[in-house]
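User: two proteins, same treatment. go.

Assistant:
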Amino acid sequence: MTKDWNRRTKLVHEGSRRSQYGEMAEAIFLTQGFAYDSAEQAEARFIKAGEDEFIYARYGNPTTRMFEERIAAIEGTEDAFATASGMAAVNGALTSLLRAGDHVVSSRALFGSCLYILEEVLVRYGVKVTFVDGTDLDQWRAAVTPGTKAVFFESMSNPTLEIIDIAAVSEIAHAQGALVIVDNVFATPVFSRAVEQGADVIVYSTTKHIDGQGRALGGVICGTTEFIRKTVEPYMKHTGGSMSPFTAWIMLNGMVTLDLRCRAMAEGAAKIAAALEGHPKLSKVIYPGLASHPQADLAERQMGSGGTLVAFDIAAGKEAAFRFMNALEIAKISNNLGDAKTIATHPATTTHQRLPADQKEKLGITPGLIRLSVGLEDADDLIADLMQALDRA
């Protein structure tokens, strides 16, 4: 494929495979197995499959491979492995790499399931985990040692939208020989420049912006060919976390409009954040594109955008937050994000419900905090909906 295409062109064409019928739309190769012309051919393929040869859908499939090549081209990595969900991607990237006795340093502000993998799963099997305030570079410097195998963080934290300096943390990690693994879902592949900023491995929940229409679970791990094929692939294909061909087809179709959708969502998010800031019923509005955000300059330098999510704290607490959510007419109550439909989430009682109260307080997950994933509706309609709901809060 042409390597100097711009992003929108790659999102439409990169990685395409056509059958003998010359179909325009990407084909769904909805098969788990593949037939061989001879026993000798089967033997040869199991010894070493060629670049466009497949054995079993858990190992690879033409439709899934189209998606992997397309997302790798967008992200700027050599290769990618598509997974059954975003959490399969996080788990696969970490667990395939780490062994008992290894040390990983992670930011503390993480999605609840990511915390579970680090605090419960990895520790259970003898991995040492150190948590730091991801925005404090001195804490990273103190925690990352010559024995650290990897660092892990969300480039924009869920749900309080803290921005972590990918370039600075990567420099600290690489100086000690550690691999940098970034969960980049809030940044989206559209605003991501993680590879050029030093990240070694990037994971996405494709359930979010890449699908973009709430249809299917999926994930992907992006990295070097050596890491993807020698570390990730053996673990994923034997533990069963691969993406299905049908899901890959959905993701391919989502990618065609990904750039257009994310830019429209971010434009709407910026307008909504500006409208909400200073509202008397809100103790704060969090949006990386606002000058009031503590990492606004970093967000602009790192992503060139404030992103598609806005968070705000309803001063009167949980009951008022619930009244606000129940009064919404356009925005829907759910725990997903990146959808074409605007979604309001109450993290303290849903996505981060399992966290102890002291951890929620430390992370800024207050009883009044709302995470708003801005969709494709008209921004003025959304603002009117939010304002009438705040009146009733």
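Protein 2:
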Amino acid sequence: MKFKGIIFDLDGTLVNSLEDISDAMNTVLTNLNYPTHTYDTYQYFIGSGLRNLVSKALPVTNNSDEQIEICFECMINEYREICTLKTKPYDGIVELLKNLTSQNIKMAVFSNKADELTKKIASEIFPNHFDMAVGLSTEELKKPNPFEALEISKKWNLTTEEILFVGDSDIDMQTANNANMFAVGVSWGYRTEQELKNSGAKLVINNALELIEIL
């Protein structure tokens, strides 16, 4: 089977956005006189959407639905202003995307980050590489729900077996398998190689350019 398309996760896969996300949330926590968290801690908060991250970052004693919603809006406002300040592509990603573009491989981004921010980061950091960038528009469509991945395959007019799904988290591997796509984990992101394999990764790569060998 020749793979003709690749769906990439964003945070922890294409870009290291840990510091911008953490800084934005810590600003919200500081303004409320709540304890802040280290980058290492935030590493395990990322992956299930920013609303979920807000819930995990708030103190247990101040974690009502109302408080989460208020802080989520504040966090989004902070993050929107700095979301490309420290965020950078991982080593080899730009070279990889240029190579794939030259081969006419279809590429898309599918993230649990808010749709507006997913599109902003993908277009600003990786202009002219992706056919589409899809973020979270409603909680019901959050990964590991494969709906958006399947919609991408339809727009490409490709079978799911012709698509690689590349990500750094257990949620990405679950999404890939739920969509019947080939699950590729990346070891440079926010989870360990063993976590990826346990979550259904068919292959784990340690360097971005290894993806070219798979193709």
